[in-house]
């Protein structure tokens, strides 16, 4: 049997196809963003891949074979992996660097943002507003793919992005570093314009469908919401994120 370890262009991202090739790439330390597995795939080699992905906490999902066929015309053997076009930062090291440089930290924590275009739009605004780093969870978060790069207008290459095992651990680390966490949520009576964002701050945004995870919300320092005067009850998450970030800019100016 022949196993493929080939990188192919895929709208400014790369892909690996073939089960053994993906296993080898993960073990070699490649920045594997996500693995797509054919539904009902089986076999010893597939079991080995699942073990490696779970051990390294690699984001994966089961998809129909038609999805894999669209991703690559090659013999994918039931698995295709996307390789991120960027390298991810270590959160603890990034926080230390920002503080050592005497900066007034502004971080952005994204809890469950899964749409690549929303992610890209948020990255673009974050870069424009001087955010020092974006924090996402390894599992369940949007991949850094061609759509992300395009929607961010290339900003994804100019801002540090950290992947963490658990958002709650990132929140605790930020707080221990003297950084106040502020959640964007409708589950509060406090307006965004009544919250202080001028000091070391990490703004936490949740997914459009469910918001911030309740277990995360419990440990946040401050909660704030945007005033809403129309008949629609919510904003697109990238728009809401922009409002929060530019209020931080206003207070810091």
Automatic annotation (TrEMBL):
Residues 15-89 form the RNA 2-O ribose methyltransferase substrate binding domain. GO terms for molecular function: RNA binding; RNA methyltransferase activity. InterPro entries: Alpha/beta_knot_MTases, Ribosomal_eL30-like_sf, rRNA_MeTrfase_TrmH, SpoU_MeTrfase, SpoU_subst-bd, tRNA_m1G_MTases_N. SUPFAM superfamilies: alpha/beta knot, L30e-like. SMART domains: SpoU_sub_bind. It comes from the Bacteria. Keywords: Methyltransferase, Transferase. GO terms for cellular component: cytosol. The keyword Transferase applies. GO terms for biological process: methylation; RNA processing. NCBIfam families: rRNA_methyl_3. PANTHER family: 23S RRNA (GUANOSINE-2'-O-)-METHYLTRANSFERASE RLMB. This is 23S rRNA (Guanosine2251-2'-O)-methyltransferase. The lineage of its organism: Bacteria, Pseudomonadati, Bacteroidota, Flavobacteriia, Flavobacteriales.
């Amino acid at each position: 049997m022949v196993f493929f370890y080939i990188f192919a262009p895929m709208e400014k991202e790369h892909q690996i196809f073939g089960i053994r090739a993906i296993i080898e790439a993960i073990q070699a330390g490649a920045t594997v963003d996500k693995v797509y597995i054919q539904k009902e795939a089986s076999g010893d080699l597939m079991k080995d891949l699942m073990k490696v992905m779970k051990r390294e906490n690699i984001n994966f999902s089961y998809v129909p074979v038609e999805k894999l066929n669209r991703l690559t015309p090659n013999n994918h053997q039931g698995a295709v992996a996307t390789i991120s076009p960027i390298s991810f930062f270590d959160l603890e090291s990034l926080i230390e660097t920002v503080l050592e440089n005497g900066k007034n930290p502004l971080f952005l924590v994204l809890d469950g943002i899964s749409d690549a275009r929303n992610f890209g739009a948020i990255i673009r605004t974050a870069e424009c507003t001087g955010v020092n780093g974006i924090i996402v969870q390894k599992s369940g978060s949007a991949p850094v793919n061609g759509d992300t790069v395009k929607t961010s207008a290339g900003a994804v290459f100019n801002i540090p992005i950290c992947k963490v095992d658990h958002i709650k651990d990132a929140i605790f680390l930020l707080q221990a570093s003297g950084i106040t966490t502020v959640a964007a949520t409708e589950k509060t009576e406090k307006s965004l314009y009544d919250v202080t964002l001028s000091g070391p701050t990490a703004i936490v945004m949740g997914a459009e469908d469910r918001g911030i995870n309740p277990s995360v919300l419990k440990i946040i320092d401050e909660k704030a919401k945007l005033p809403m005067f129309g008949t629609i009850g919510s904003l697109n998450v990238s728009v809401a994120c922009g409002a929060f970030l530019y209020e931080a800019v206003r207070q810091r100016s």
